[in-house]
Amino acid sequence: MTAIAHFVAITCYVGAAALAATPFARPVGAPVRGVVALLAAGVIAHAAGLLEYANRVGQLPLTGLGPSLSFAGLVLAATLLVVELAARDVSLTLIAAPLAALPTTCANLIGLVPGLEPAGARGTWLFAHIALSFVGIGAFATAAAAGCMYLVERRELKSRRFGAIFRFFPPLATLDRVNHVAAIAGWLGLTLGVVLAVTYSLAYRELSVLKVVWAMGAWLAVSGIALGRVVGGWQARRAAIYSSVSFAAVVVLYVAFRFAESNGGGRFL
Amino acid sequence: MAVIVLGVSHHGAPLDVRERLAFRSVEVLPTLARLRDQAGAREGVLLSTCNRTELYLVDGSGDAVREGWALLSERLGAEASAYGYVRRDREAAAHLFRVASGMDSLVVGEAQIHGQVRDAWEASRAASGTILNRLFQSALLVGGRVRSETTLGHGALSVSTAAVQLAKKIFGGLAGRRAMVLGAGEMAELALASLQQEGVRAAIVANRTYERATELAAHYGASAVHYDEAWAALADVDLLLCSTAAPRPVVSVERVRAAVDARGDRPLCILDIAVPRDVDPAVAALENVFLYDIDDLRAVVSANLERRTSALPAAEAVITAEVEKFWQWVAGLAAVPVLTQFRDEMNRVRERELLAALRRLPDLTPEQRAAVEYFSLSLMNKFLHEPTVRLRAAAANGRGLGVVDAARYLFALDDKAPTSSEPAEPQPTAAEDR
Q: What ipTM did this prediction achieve?
C-alpha cells in the first residue's frame, strides 16, 4: 500500500510538472485547475502512504533515511500546493514538483525502513526537531526554486526575448514575493529545528559533528537570506542569486557529508 | 426544421453598411416578431454589434432566409445579401461558436464579443426557444472554453497595451505604482490612458509643451512637472515612459545611474516609445533597469498576434467537438416526435387487428382475451424495440436526420404529423422497461 501510494504520488508530481509545461509545447494556457488537482492528488496519496506506514511500523516517518526523504518530498509538495493556491499560478510546479518527486523516488528506492526511535518526551522532542527542520528545508527549497525562475525570467526580459518564458512565467514581482515569504518561513522552521536540536544534544549528550556542521550551514544560509531581505533590504536579483546558490551549496554539502560518512561506515542523516 | 444564421459582418460589409444595419435593443423584439409572423420563424435571436448584424433563426416554413434578407434590405435601402452570408445547421452553430470565441472578430481573440453575444440572447429571450437557447448557452460555454484552454485571447495588440503588458511582467499589478511620462504628445497620451486604467499614479514632464502637459495632467488626474525638476524625482518612480520629440537622447546613463543607485534593488522599467529614441541604449546595461523601445513593443504585439493565430487550430478543435455535441442534441430532438408518431401508429394498427381477432373468437374467457391482448402488445414491443433503439442511436450519432426522414417516409408518418410544435417525449417500449 505504501509503495503504491508513493508510486501514485510520484506519478502525480511528474504529471503536474508535465502539465504545467504544456504551454511551452502548444499555444494553450497552462491548465491551472488540472495542475493543482494533480498536485493535490499526489499530496493526498503521499500523505495516505506515509500514514499507512506510520500505522504499520508504529512511529512517524521522521527517522530512517527513506521515511525522512519521503516526508521531505511531502512537505515540499504541500508547500508548493499552498503557494500555488495562494498565488493562483502554477509555473512554480515546473521546478518544485520534480524537486518533490526526487526525494520521494529516492525514498522508494532506498526502502522505507524506520530508524531507532527514542520513546516518550525524548521521542516527541526529536520528532518536533525533525518535522520543523523539514518544513524549514522545504520552504528554503521553494525560495530557491522561485529564485531560479526569477533569474531565468529576468535574463529573458533584459535580453528582450518575448517567448514562452515571457508568456507563462509569473511576473518578477510575484517570484520575488514568493522568494521573500519562503525565505522567512524557511528561517523560522530551521531556527526552531536547530534550537530543538541543540537543546536535545545538550540534554541527552548526543552529538554528531557532521550533522551540526551541516545544520549550521543550512541555518546560516537561510538566515543570510532572511536577514538580507528584512534588514538589508535585499530584493530581486540579489536575493534570487543568494537563495539559489546557497540552497545548491546546502544540497552539495549534504551529498558530500553523506558520502564521507558512508565511507567511514556510518550514516549521515 | 433548420437552424439558420444570416447577416453581415466586417468581413464583407463596409462600415457605412454596418452602421445602417445596426439595431438598438428596443428594436430587437419587434423585428423578431415580424420574422415570426411573416416568415414562420419559430425562434429568433438578433445579434447587433459594431462589427456585425446577424439573425439566428429556427426556420419552420422555409421562408426565413428570404424574409430575413428582405428585412435587412429594407433597413439598408439596398440589397443586403450582397454584403452578407447565410449558414445553415452545423455551419450556423459553428459560426456562432466562432463569433462567441472571438475567432471571427476584427481583433482576433477579443473578449468583448462574449458579453455582446450574451446580451443579444438576453434581449431576444422572448423570441428564442428550446433550440436557440441551447445554441446560445453552448456558444457562451465554447467562448469560455476557448479563452481558458487556448492562448487565443492572450497578449496585448497595441503598442500602448503592450507597454502595460511589459510593465506588468516586471511589477505584477500596477495599481499604486508611480510613473513619469516624458513628453505630452499623442503616443504619450495613449500610453498614459492605458497606465491610468491600471491604477498607476503618473507625473507628466514637459518643457516646450508645458501647457499641453498641464491639460493632460488635469484630464488624467496626474501632475505636470517642468523638465529640469524631473530628474530628482526619477529615483522614486517605477516606470519611466519617454515620448518626446527630441532629436537626440535626453535620458543619459549618468542620469539613470544616479536614480538607480538611490533605489536599492527595486527594478526600474523604462519604455521609450519615441522616434528618434529618447533613452541612451547603454542604459539597458544598468543593474535592475529594464529598457524597451518601440521595436520591442512592436515585437511583443507581433508575438501576441502570431500566438493568437497559432491558437486557431486548437480553438477550432474545441468548436468542432462542441458543434458535434450540439448537433447530436438537435438531431435527438428531431427524432423524438417521429418515434412517438411511429409508436402511436403501430399501436393503432395493433388495436385494430386485435379487435378484429377478438371478434372472430367470441368464446374466449376474459383470462384468454387478456392473454391474447398481452401477446399482441408484447409482439408489437418486440418488433418496435430494435427500430426505436436504432433511430435514437442514429439521431445521436449525427446520421440522424437522414434516417429519421427515411423512417417518416417508410411508415408514411408525414401524412399523420401531430399538430403540436413542441416535441413530445417518446414512450419507452416494454423491452426497454425491462
A: 0.73
